[in-house]
């Protein structure tokens, strides 16, 4: 005899589609379940596949996080904050205007490299011709490092934008990040026409308060295609990355690693450092080397 699906003793598997404080919304089949974790555990991320016990028809307790394929996070001196689990790629949305900061783009790239997540850079608002060429040059720098760039215009060319992005998204779990004003919401709304409705539903279910849209949420387009929208942030701390992880998160460093005079070279002021020599020769951008040193410094300030 088969038991009814919502028998309270059943273990259910689902995907975490939103997180607000220590409250989580889990999609299990066609149900959205309001969930908490046992005790004080709060290491659940959007995108996690979890096992939970139902406590009522639409509520549950998360008992187990299944093994993650990837985990993206950012951190400050005191703690790390999970951004999303199981994503396969990161879309960094930049625009012709307002200007974007290279620091945030490079930090996002480093976070993705460290997590083993692929990156695409989406240059939006290419209809703003006045700043197009200047922005193209800036973005070409990242293309030169090996990151694919895609030019779109969410408002002026919506159909072309969808046509350019859809093939990249299918079968992937993609997180979009971008500074405020780059047009990330405009792009999400094109890809997921019901996004606004979904946000209201999630917000109500998690009781986040009327005007809060500042939580990470996942939209499942089908079984294998997920889109994660994360709130914009001004800072992207990476205190959790170790020196070894940092070195390998800069693809342009790779051919020089192991070629410094000292095997434990920090590439900061050691003599005969292959990385610094490459910077001096113009083969590594000073901006990226400076960020590397800054991240190395942050890594040494970690207090947890
Ligand atoms: N000209 C032009 N404007 C755009 C384009 N895409 C978005 N915008 C405009 O840019 C502004 C910001 O767009 P949003 O989609 O709200 O940007 P966002 O990145 O989600 O910003 P936050 O909501 O602050 O995180 C809005 O006024 C959009 O209408 C575009 O392709 N071209
Ligand atoms: Zn060195």
UniProtKB/TrEMBL annotation:
Binding site for Zn(2+): 260, 265, 267, 273
Documented EC number(s): 3.6.1.-
Key words, A-Z: Cytoplasm, GTP-binding, Hydrolase, Metal-binding, Nucleotide-binding, Ribosome biogenesis, RNA-binding, rRNA-binding, Zinc
GO molecular function: GTP binding; GTPase activity; metal ion binding; rRNA binding
One Pfam family hit: RsgA_GTPase
Membrane-spanning parts: none
Subcellular location(s) of the protein: Cytoplasm
Residues noted as binding GTP in the record, renumbered to the chain: 124-127, 178-186
SUPFAM superfamilies, per database record: Nucleic acid-binding proteins (SSF50249), P-loop containing nucleoside triphosphate hydrolases (SSF52540)
Residues in EngC GTPase domain copies: 85-234
Keyword hit for Nucleotide-binding: yes
Family: Belongs to the TRAFAC class YlqF/YawG GTPase family. RsgA subfamily.
Function: One of several proteins that assist in the late maturation steps of the functional core of the 30S ribosomal subunit. Helps release RbfA from mature subunits. May play a role in the assembly of ribosomal proteins into the subunit. Circularly permuted GTPase that catalyzes slow GTP hydrolysis, GTPase activity is stimulated by the 30S ribosomal subunit.
Binding partners and assembly: Monomer. Associates with 30S ribosomal subunit, binds 16S rRNA.
Full protein name: Small ribosomal subunit biogenesis GTPase RsgA
Taxonomic source organism: Herminiimonas fonticola
